[in-house]
Amino acid sequence: MNYRMKEIPKEERPRERLIKEGVDKLSNEELISIILKTGTKDKNVKNISIEILQMAQNITDLKNITVPALKTIKGVGEVKAIELIATIELGKRIFLAKAGKDNIKMCNPKEIWNMTRYLFYGKKQEYFYCLYLNNKQELIERKLLFMGTINRSIVHPREVFKEAYLVSASNIICMHNHPSGDVTPSKEDLYFTKNLAEIGKMQGIPIIDHIIVSDDSYYSFYENKDIFIC
Fold first, then answer.
1. Rounded CA gap, 24 and 227, in Å?
2. What string of DSSP letters covers 80-135?
3. Distance between CA atoms of 195 and 167, rounded to whole angstroms?
4. Other C-beta atoms within 10 Å of 73: how many?
């Protein structure tokens, strides 16, 4: 039924229900309706929201939805698609990011993964980050250095250490994701990490870990004794 939102009794509209009953009482369809705001003259916002949920099949699959895919739904233009994806990304970061204070210590690979996993969650290509630390292993800066293809990221050591000098870092932790979900380091990962660690020793800015991550697991070179602090 393609009724207009103004035809719904005011107390039953999603925005009014959110205020009166709380956001946790709203359905997924109602939450999306609030984000989209309006429908078209031929299709109300409720029906558009239902189509989006049907496209995703499962609510968790919304994390991977794209602007072009959303725009195939009549009534969803580029602006609405961007707003919805931005909202999903913000929710994902809030859910996955571990609350912390200033001067977070980066000492435990599992905790580091938990604190930063939102950066990689649902990504379909490799992202390479460096965490730059002071001499107390407190985080100074986090930097995305490269994005690669689904199975390869090209990283030059020069960029890794250039950033370290800019922020006066004492230690570096490297992180990248394997979109396949298999966090086992490749031969390329092993070679690159060994080379980077040797350069770090020469530069006096050691690479103290390289963590490979997926949505559900991680691999720490340090924990597996594939890298050693000098």
1. 46
2. HHHHHHHHHHHHHHHHHSPP--SS-B---HHHHHHHHGGGTTT-SS-EEEEEEE-T
3. 22
4. 18
Cβ(143)–Cβ(130) below 8 Å: yes
Q: Which residue's structure tokens are 């571990």?
A: 98
Per the document, the length of the chain is 230
CB atoms within 10 A of CB 12: 9
* Model pTM score: 0.63
Task: Report yes or no: 45 and 84 within 8 Å, Cβ to Cβ.
Answer: no
Q: Are 41 and 25 within 8 A, CB to CB?
A: no
Residue 61: how many CB atoms within 10 A of its CB? 12
Please report, as a single letter, which amino acid is at residue 57: Q
| Distance in angstroms (rounded) separating the CA atoms of residues 28 and 26 | 7
One-letter identity of residue 153: S
Which residues fall within 8 angstroms of residue 94, CB to CB, at 6 or more apart? Answer: none
DSSP string, 180-228: TS--PPPHHHHHHHHHHHHHHHHHT--EEEEEEE-SS-EEETTTTTSS-
Alpha carbon of residue 11 to chain centroid: 36
Q: For 161-196, write each residue's pLDDT tens digit.
A: 999 999 999 999 999 999 999 999 999 899 999 999
Tell me the per-residue pLDDT of 192-219, one tens digit each, with 9 for 90 and over. Answer: 999 999 999 999 999 999 999 998 899 9
Q: How do residues 59-74 score in pLDDT, each as one tens digit?
A: 777 888 889 999 999 9
